[in-house]
Structure formats: C-alpha cells, structure tokens
Amino acid sequence: MSAGQEATSADVARAATPLWRQAPFVRFWLGRFTSHVAGTMITVAVGWQMYELTGSALDLGLVGLVQFLPGVGLMLVAGVVADRYDRRLVMRIAQLSQVAGLAALTVANFAGLVTPAVLYLTVFVFGAARAFENPTMHALLPAVVPPEDFPKAVAASSSGGQAAVIVGPAIGGFAYLAGPGFVYGSCALLIALASVFIGLIRIARNVAPRERPTLDTLLAGIRYIRAKPVLLGAISLDMFAVLLGGATALMPIFARDILEAGPIGLGMLRSAPGIGALTMSLWLAHRPFQHRVGHKLFAGIAVFGLATIVFGLSESFVLSLASLVVLGASDMVSVVIRLSIVQLETPDDMRGRVSAVNSLFIGSSNQLGEFESGVTAEWFGPRAAAVLGGVGTLAVVALWARLFPTLYGRDRLDTRPRT
Q1: pLDDT band for position 2 (50/70/90)?
Q2: Rounded to whole angstroms, how far apart are CA atoms 282 and 275?
Q3: 8-202+214-408: what CATH class?
Q4: What are the residue ranges spanned by the domains of the chain?
Q5: What tens digit of pLDDT does each residue of 276-308 get?
C-alpha cells in the first residue's frame, strides 16, 4: 500500500470518529486554547498598564500598531516557512520565543523597570512570534482532521479560541490585582504548556522540498488570492469591516472613565465577546452552515457593526456587556465561514503562504483597528470613535456586496465535487 493510500485510509478511519476522540485534534485544540488564554491575559495586562502609565488613548492605539508591524515585514517569509518546514516545529519555536519575551517582561516588572518603551518592545516581539504562529496554526488544522470534518473542526477550534477569550481576560483582570508581573509570568508558563501540546501531535504530511525561496515563491500566496475573487472578497471584507469596528482597544477607557468598572470590569468586558462567540461556535460545531453561506457572512458582519454602535452609545455596564456578547456571536459567524472557505479553496502546499496573507489581513483588522480607534478617540472621544467605527462597518458590508457578488451569492462552504 502506498503512502497516499495509507493517508486516505487513515482519513476514512478518522472521519468515522467524533472530533473529541481524535487525539491529534484534541492536542491541537488544547494547544490553541492554552496559547489564546495567555494572549488574552496579556492584552488585558498591557492595556491597563499602558493606560496607567500614560493616560493616553493614542498610546493604547499604538500598542495595536506596534504589534501589527512585524506581521507586515514577516508575512511572506512566515508563509514560505509554514509550507517548507514541519508546521508543528514552526509553531513551537514561535511559542517559545514568546515565553522568552514574557519572562524578560516579568523580571522587568518585579524590578520596577517597566516603561511604555519596554511594553512596546515586548509587544513587538510578541507580534513577530505571532506572525509565524498564527498562519502556521491555520495551515496545520486541515492535516489534523479528515476533509469531511473540517468545517466542524473550524467551529470547534474557534470555540477553543473563544473560550480563551472568555476566561483569559477574566483571569487576567483578577490576576492583575496581584501585579502585572504576576500576569506576565503566568502567561509565560501557559504558552510553554501550549508548546508541549503541539509537540505531541502526530500526523502524516508530505513536506515540500526545501528549495531556496525566490521572489516567485514568496509572492505565490498573494497571487493565488488575487486570482480567486471569493477568497479576496472574504478576506478583505473581514479586514475592512473589523478594522473600522475595532472599538475593543478602547475598553480600558470605557471600563475606567465611562462605566467606572475598574480592572475587573475590564476583564468582564474583554470576556463578553468571547461568550457570544463561544456560544455561536458550539452551535456551529453541531449545526454547520449548509446553504446560503454568503448571505450569512454579510449578515453576521452587519450585526457586528450594529453591536459596535450600541456599545459606543451605552452608558450601562449591563447593556455594554450584552452588546459585546452579540458582537462576538456575529463575528464568529464571519470567522467560521471565512476560515472554511480559505482553507477548503487552497491546496495543502499553498496553505502556509495563503494563511500568512490571511493572518496579515486579520492583523490589519485587529491591530490596525485598535490604532484607528485610538486615533479617532483622541480626536473625537471614545464614544464617538466606537459609533463611527460601527457605521463604517455597515458601509463596508453594503459596498462589498456589490463588489463581490459571487461571494455574496455563495451557497455552500465546500464547492468541490463530491465523491
């Protein structure tokens, strides 16, 4: 029996096994969950500490920009690395780099040496490591489960990320009461544990020959996406919509100055989108989208924009939490549809490079969205910034429906011929 036949037989056997009984997927899920818990804890701690040090909305926005910049410079290289080397090894090296940076920041906190510049430097290192970890993680998932289980695996994997978004900020907010150094040290241990889970994954995958990278191989992911209007539309829709609606960077301001909720309230606000997203991802893991996925993608992002507007107008802590729950649930609809389309439309030997471009777009929407929110909050105030961002998201949805009619009218996630 050939290696290809053995791989096919293994896929058939795994397809008959529930996801939670497939050891490679369980280890992948645990690794992603643990890493994301640490990442969300770091977000809470850095945001609160930076605002304590500077009291500036612009500085909060700059945190997102500094984290985004390494991704721009490393995107093409990270994609090639993910396609040319063992993706598990790439993820572990990226995670251990984060551990080293967090350990240094922990020492700096306990020594009383932390300044805004130190926080920016740590965030920059964190962003550089995540530039390799994120696209590699997305490219690894299709090898962990059989193709028939992939849409469910995306939803289940996303549920792990969103569970982390729930528990991570809450833990981070409470842990911050013991000091930021305690938070950063705990995160270093969590990411080290994530590296162990990833190292335990056992899969069969043919790694592409390690020929010397050329400009042609570096740009292959960009060209592939440009040639696929559905991919280009899905990725760019998410980028521009979330970029304009990225009011989450302003949560420290809302928690302290508007809602008067303190660091624990900030943790709860950070957790609220994850509650909505986790609920939606669990639903989709059992009831995946079958038809009219294009319409559902655009509807989900429109609801995201409306929830952002409500959050910006709210003066009630409870209403703010509720709007963020809806925001997270609607965003998860977009995440599951977009990631499924991107991975199912991309051959395995291109997934690293395509995922790298996709991760850059995601980084643009998240980190640049934080910067955009910080700048507009500095100019117009935090509430106006959130409302304007939500209105901008609705405008993007309307425009993209006209620019990408194939995406808007797409019926199923997987359009490949069924055998």
Answers
A1: very low
A2: 11
A3: mainly alpha
A4: 8-202+214-408
A5: 887 887 787 777 777 788 888 888 889 998 998
